[in-house]
Amino acid sequence: MSQSSIFQKTNIFQTLQDYDCFVTDEDKIEKLINAFENNISKTCCALICQNSNEELTYAAPYIRILYVLQGTIRITIDSKLVEYSAGCFIIANPVTQIFYSELEDNTEVMTLLFKKDFFDLFYTNQIIDYPLFYDFIQFVISEEQTKSNYFFFQCDPQDDTRYLALILLKEILSQKNSAQKKVVRAAFLLLIAELDRIKNETLILKESIIPSNMLVGEILKYMNLNYAVASLQSLSDIFHLHPNYISGLIKENTGKLFSQHLAEIRLKQATYLLTNTNLSIEKISEMIGYMDKGYFFKLFKKHFDCSPRKYRINHENQQTCK
């Protein structure tokens, strides 16, 4: 097979040409997947499809990562038709059906497959700092899933995610022993850490299927980090969902209104600033997002049964408001 154009520009990956990972038709893909299924010592595998003239409909009951290295593909995912170009990642659970066809010459699509055994307890705990991915993996390994769950990320095809995806591909293909398995896991962790870092700019929620409790977790995390400016409209802009939908989602999953969550987060930060800084109460009110000092006073007193000033004095005297 002729050398893949995507690697002609990157000498470090020339060795990939020595691996039997480039495929052009579904028959060879199915043979690779069957071999993977029957090899109990392998927990992950990789392939690159290039210049295919047919729609690929093969089944792959594993956690799957698709990455468009170059070109454009048309994807049918759970009967929904979309088109994506180089830089697109799709991360899907085992029950998600994905069909795709290549729309341009020299299109190359990387596929990475992971069995549940790849994610043992010790390794999964290392992913806990990335809640979106941690929850996704936990759903897969701890439950008998019957519903699709997948993410779309549209990244810059020349950013760090490309390099990290290729590193992961290379390590999977060269894996021969337990020591190399640790390297594969490290490479996987680096990739999801980078995707997590840039998810606000690259995660396409309107075309992803995410369990509502996972989505609410991401929304609340954003609110905790951006409490001073958070609003239903800002959440709508970030997560590409209608403000009313976000409001209903929060209420359905937490039993509280958006405004209640935001007030609790802001007031918690206010108590920290009152007891750990000498900032004026007016300044604290502005810092946590309340430009109307009177409203802040009223809300604070309703919640803590005393004024902000009294709360600060009582803390200094090791007393409580009530």
UniProtKB/TrEMBL annotation:
Q: Can you give the residue ranges of the HTH araC/xylS-type domain?
A: 217-314
Query: Which positions make up the signal peptide?
Result: none
UniProt keyword terms in alphabetical order = DNA-binding, Transcription, Transcription regulation
Keyword Transcription regulation included in the entry's annotation: yes
Tell me which InterPro entries the record gives: Homeodomain-like_sf, HTH_AraC, HTH_AraC-typ_CS, Tscrpt_reg_AraC-type_HTH
Q: Which GO terms describe its molecular function?
A: DNA-binding transcription factor activity; sequence-specific DNA binding
Source superkingdom: Bacteria
Which Pfam family name is an example for this entry?
Answer: HTH_18
Q: What is this protein called?
A: HTH araC/xylS-type domain-containing protein
